[in-house]
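Sample A.
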Amino acid sequence: MDKLTDYRPFENGHMTRRARTGRSTAKRIALLAFAICALAATLGLGYRLGHSNPGLPDWIPPRLAAMLGSHSSHPAGTGPVIYYRDPDGKALYSRDTRTTPDGRPYVAVYASEDVSFDNPPETAAPAQDANSGAKRILFYRNPMGLPDTSPVPKKDSMGMDYIPVYEGENDASTIQIPPGKLQRTGVRSEPASLRVVTRPVRAPGTIKLDERRVAVVSLRAQSFIESVENVTTGDHVTKGQPLLRLYSPDVASAGAQYLSIVGDNSGTANLAGRKQLIDGARRRLENLAVPADVIADIERTKTVPLTVTWTAPRDGVILERTAVEGMRAQPGDVLFRLADTSVIWVIADVAEQDIDAVKIGATATIKLRSLSGREFKGSVALIYPQVNIETRTTKVRIELPNPDGVLLPDMFADVEIASGAEKPVVAVPNGAVIDTGARQIVFIDKGEGRFEPRDVKVGTRGEDYTEIRDGIGEGDRVVVAANFLIDAESNLKSALRAFTDGEKSK
């Protein structure tokens, strides 16, 4: 008590050594009490986590998680050791045992603790007797696809069980893929079916006049145009409609000769000779292209007209008029040019690689940019026997009716020519065919993750389906999605087989 009474914490404004020592001791006691409480709380948390949840939260530090995990009641892993991981939970793994820089061993990860999407390894089944009806196991193959087999069940260096190969499955060309991998990659198959495969050939086109329906009005003798009817370029005329009146000395002379022979009845004794004279005079008028109705008027009226009316030779639209009143027309001068537009042509420029798909008589659909919403149907009449060296296209002539005259020459058109088989053929989706350039293959789905590559001969390739002429039949299931995975597996298997065969030959 005297010491306590004599205790003076301050002397002259400064703490004494004894006071400082007492305060330091109190601080140590407080820190020790806090550490004891924190340790108790940590142990309690670890006990609860270990008994309630096999996994620890992410906010637990790695070393504390490893310490708590060691006291957890989570069941130990089963199966072979797959790999070893860092004890602190870092993304560090090892195939063999190893230690951290501070000497702590890596944690073993067993098969049951590893995440896998594949089916669990198949357990070896004893060989079945031939009379029991079950498939007999021929051998066991390497689970990684290596060219390694075993007559008895075994494991590889990674601890994976060898896969049994049953009787009827020993096909060197068959690819086996685990169902889990198929599900992840989205492999899908569907049966080949009978379909009408069409592929429209699209090409630009231009509307042209039918060359066989174009006519000109010209004279075969020197003439003078007396008058021209009220028709001009763009007007529609009918066959026999008057176009102009002209005077021709040659026509008048031939008409007078014909009239004199027809009207002369003195030489009736020689009827055969007279008939020849009449036919010769008439032929001269016809050679001058005098219309038949004008010759009939000469015979009927017994007079030669001063002027002759020239008529339209066919129905059509006047494309050109050069006839002018009072002009002198020389033989061969074109006075009128007209065309029948009831049937027109569409000249399409088809790419060189599409020419083989275009056939004579194929249906063509014409769409005009100036007549949106309207379609015109025609048929292929001719494939021109020449390829344009600059554009690498071939001209295809399409004929189609034009009854209302809305299709005008030199219009631009979009042409779509139907091609392909008219009858149903065996077809598969376009994605099912793998074209390597040298050959085309499809993968046949044999079920249970087994696939077989099959060479096929393709025909018409449509927008959605491809014709198969040889290799598969109707009902065969083919892979239509993710077949690149199966193709990669097939190539790997072939490469390994070739490597093994090369090793054996040495």
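Sample B, a different protein:
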Amino acid sequence: MNYVDGGNDAILAQQADRESSARTYPRHLPLAIRDAQGCTVTDMDGDEYYDCLAGAGTLALGHNHPRVVEAMEQALAAENPIHTLDISTPAKERFVDSLFESLPDAFSERSKVQFCSPAGTDAVEAALKLVKTATGNRSVLGFQGAYHGMTSGALSLMGDTDAKEPISGLMNDVHHLPFPYDYRCPFGVGGTEGARIASEYVENLLDDGESGITDPAGMILEPVQGEGGAVPAPDEWLREMRRITRERDIPLILDEIQAGMGRTGETYAFEHAGITPDVLTLSKAIGGGLPLAVVVYDESLDVWDPGSHAGTFRGNQLAMAAGEATIDYVLENDLDDHAAEVGARLRDHLESTGAGVDAIGDVRGRGLMLGVEFVDPDADWQGAGPHAPDGDFAAAVQSECFDRGLIVELGGRDSATARFLPPLVVSREQIDDVAAIFDEAVTAVLNKASRAEVPA
């Protein structure tokens, strides 16, 4: 079949015929990509889109960044090995140099790194195995609203019960704690008070001999919940989680698979709170767009035996070359500061769109990891408090965005949050364009809803 001449329809039809029913993005982003550059992609019909999905945050420097392309071309031209398991190479050591340079000294000076199979969920699995081996304990503390991947161990940590129901019998022993989601505070108060109560709840639970929780092997959390709807953890609450876990010798695992490498306005999101984790899981951006995942952890936990955790494709040398180039470019060009600046600009635009629109309940996030939650103003959530999330409205806005040349993804409760994860190199002008398209899309959905309510 000539896919080029057939355009989007030919490729999408073939994909639907041959791929599994588990495929996701093509169902609500019906395009086949012909080429891509920077913050834009062009489909097989020649239509161009701003890409605010960017490989679910993988493409920190956007599509085909010259620095990343050059690094891969040099590696290939030099006939460097492509795959080495965990045998080292100069490229691997340079990657580790750059990775450790990106971390706060207080963490990197005591760190070990474990290369995993190349997906973020593999890093989570490795982190769970690490802390269980080091502590001898089994149970894990997770949080409501969390997303850590789709393998069995990672799924057990997820807040979404529907996604993990099919394999519930294989789950780890996980206790889901309340996350200080300001808009939908689990204690009904929100703000500083909600975060304080959430901290006290966790501390009291761990100190209660009748809580039913055995000694934990670790606590894992996202400093900004990504798939959960771009929900940032308050800095003071993070500091309290660090204090609580440290005082009880519970390893603290921070999942920065999506938030890490400049996206939130700091190189790593935990730096906003000024804390140091025991374990850090990383993937996505650190591979420069290619598959790569690592666990970085305190040397005191390095007690597992040789071969305790492996993975055939942990030796992806092209990803290490691309990752080194990406990390160095982010650091050299202060892209964390840029993300903070243009992220604030985008947030201002999004809040302006939401002003006076009852269907927008919350605008939140950090840096270039933002979300807009859509709600049904005629329905309360769980009988009280904020309005119920409205996934149908969000899906309609996503579709209108797509028709106007903007790719955004949905997440959060009822998939009601439009999520923005543009490349960190996005310009101010592009941010303004993205915001304008989003505003038009929201207006279009509101107008359609208004017309539907008018009697014939």
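Observation for Sample B: The two ends are 48 Å apart (CA to CA).
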